Structure formats: C-alpha cells, structure tokens
Amino acid sequence: MKKSFALAAAGKHPDRVLDAVKHDIRKYLRRERRRELPEGVDFLDFDCRFGRDADNAQTVHLSALTGLVDAAARDGATQVYVEILAKPGHRTQRPSSNETLPDAALPASGDDSTKADGDGDGDGDGDGNGNGDADADGDGTGTDPVPVRSN
User: Fold this and answer.
1) Beta-bridge partner residues of 84
2) CA 9 to chain centre
3) Measured at the alpha carbon of residue 59, what is the angle toward residues 58 and 65, in degrees to the nearest 5?
4) How many CB atoms lie within 10 A of CB 18?
5) 85 has which bridge partners?
6) Fewest Cβ atoms nearer than 10 Å: which of 37, 68, 125, 141?
7) Could you give phi then psi for residue 62, rounded to 5 degrees?
8) Rg of the chain over CA atoms, in angstroms?
9) Cα separation, 41 vs 53, whole angstroms
10) Of 74, 57, 69, 71, whose CA–CA distance to 19 is shortest?
11) With a threshold of 0.85, does the pTM exceed it?
12) Largest Cα–Cα distance of the chain, in whole Å?
C-alpha cells in the first residue's frame, strides 16, 4: 500500500478522520496477514515508510506507524504519506543457553556457588543449617535481633 491520507475533511471531525486513517492501515495489515504464505516463508514482514509526503518519507518500524500518524495530526499536518510493503519473513533459531557459554564457564552440578544464598544448604535463608528458618543468630527462635541505627 502506497497512499497519501488527508487528515482534514470538510464536515467531519478531525478525530474521526484520524480514526479512519488508522483503521485503513490496520485493515490493510489484516488483509495481508490473512493471505496464504508461500512455501518456505514463516511469516509476513512489513517494510514501512512514513512522511508528510512521498518525497520526504522515512523508513520506520511497523509498530511506530500509528503513533507517527497521531503525532503528525497533533502537529497540524493536512496529509500524511504511508507506505507498507509486505515481504517474506524467515525465523532464525536462537542458540540454546548451553551453546553460548564455553564448557569451562558452566558450573559443576555439585557446586555450591549456584545456590541463591551462597551457604550451600539450598534453603535460601543464608544461615547454613538447611532448615529454611532464617535463624541467622542460631538461637533456634527464628527471630533475630534488629540492629539499631545510630545517627
């Protein structure tokens, strides 16, 4: 779609004209996404350009398009140019987390440095006794004295 949209129409509220422009853009995207994908294509990607006219159009991301239309209307533009061209998209596989780290950087399975509290008992309270009671002073009450701050 390569189209210039008027943002002012006689007898129509400017907000309704703006809504109609954004509706036409979304309608085009829905229509293109409904089409059958060619063999070997994972999804449709879109190349977009936006500007006050075709000569001054800049390449933009699809997600920014409606925001740019809103901004142009706020700035008092009388028309905007929108170009959206569908192109085939191919997904790339992300490397697994094990492939990104060298073998020496992976921790051993029994290594205590991987525990959240670092004390090696795995209970997360940091006291090393393994019961998870957060009894750091070891008196068995589960409550620890609160340090008093002096200013």
Assistant:
1) 48
2) 36
3) 95
4) 20
5) 47
6) 141
7) -55, -40
8) 30
9) 32
10) 69
11) no
12) 82
